[in-house]
Amino acid sequence: MRSFAKEVKEEILMNERTDPQFKAELSGLLQFLSTISISNRGLTIVIRTENAKISRFVMALLKEYYGAVIETSIVRKMKLNKNKVYLLRVMNKGREILEDLGLWTEEGLMSHPSRAFVNNREMARAYLAGCFLASGSVNDPKKTDYHMEISANREEQGKFILRALKKLGLNGKMIPRRNQFVVYIKSVDAINDFLVHVGANDCAIQYADVRIQRDIYNNYTRLENCATANEVKMIRSGKEQVDAIERLKRSGKFDKLDRKLKETAELRLRYPEESLQALSEYYEEETGQAISKSGMKHRLEKIVELSGINAERGE
Fold first, then answer.
1. CB 3.0–4.6 Å: which of 12, 50, 86, 107 could bond 55 by disulfide?
2. By CB neighbour count within 10 A (0-12 exposed, 13-18 middle, 19+ buried), where does 311 fall?
């Protein structure tokens, strides 16, 4: 079964892009997926990914834009789930490619491209899409823990991603985790906006829809629980009041109650589980005198007090 994060990545791969956006996205991808080796054959870029579609996407871009000669191979991990790892070895134009993507300067390999490379929102979106494809994940919206993250190899990479997010109006945070620096977003609305920015519009709609449905269900459940709790409380109160009235009758104190308390008590005995509002309406129908819920509550509390039940409980 495909994970939600994999659905997001597959949708991103289907986006239409301008040439500059392709390069910004490729820059983000290579930043996380590639290493370089230098030998007498020159500079070789080695790209590793466990996602076959991303492997094909990167290879197609490198061939189309740079005419790169690429050797491919597949290895299988020896540990954990033994996933396949797709290897791309870029055998020519390595330095030219890295320079064009802002990842190589006179100082050597850079941990991230220059700020000028993502100097507008469209480029920032494409760059973040590449970063997410390479090293991102997002929780399934069916889970209650909303979380999106991109794992960076260096702190400078993480800070650069935070700046790119801020350019889009998104506030991320960063924490160290093992040997990486994880940039993350926990706000459900911000995650939804991020999905839209990187071109996963269908997944964003799905994310929002599942969240809204769960929120509606949770609100309904809370209301239902509240109603149930109120009903239980009302039934308990009614039983306590009936017990108090019966105690007053056994002790002979009932006949000493004033007329209004007697009328209220008789009404409660006939309707032991009714609400205060219902008792108030019945009282007005039978006596022709209006009484509020608070007035009915006060009379019933007085009856319980006179019965001595509260005193026995130490209340």
1. 86
2. exposed
Torsion angle in degrees (nearest 10) through CA of 32, 190, 173, 6:
-30
Q: How many CB atoms lie within 10 A of CB 283?
A: 20
AA identity, residue 220: Y
How far apart CA 38 and CA 109 sit, in angstroms, is 12
Is there a contact between 120 and 112 (Cβ–Cβ < 8 Å)? no
Q: Look at residues 87, 201, 214, 109 and name the one whose alpha carbon lies nearest to residue 156.
A: 109
**pLDDT reading at 107 higher than 90:** no
Q: Tens of pLDDT along 261-289?
A: 988 888 888 888 888 888 888 888 888 88
In angstroms, rounded to a whole number, what is the distance separating the alpha carbons of residues 160 and 174? Answer: 11
Q: Are 172 and 184 in contact (CB under 8 A)?
A: yes
Task: Specify whether domain 4-199 bears CATH 3.10.28.10.
Answer: yes
Q: Where are the domains of the chain?
A: 4-199, 227-313
Task: Give tens-digit pLDDT for 9-40.
Answer: 999 999 888 888 999 999 999 989 988 887 77
Number of H helices, E strands in the chain: 12, 10
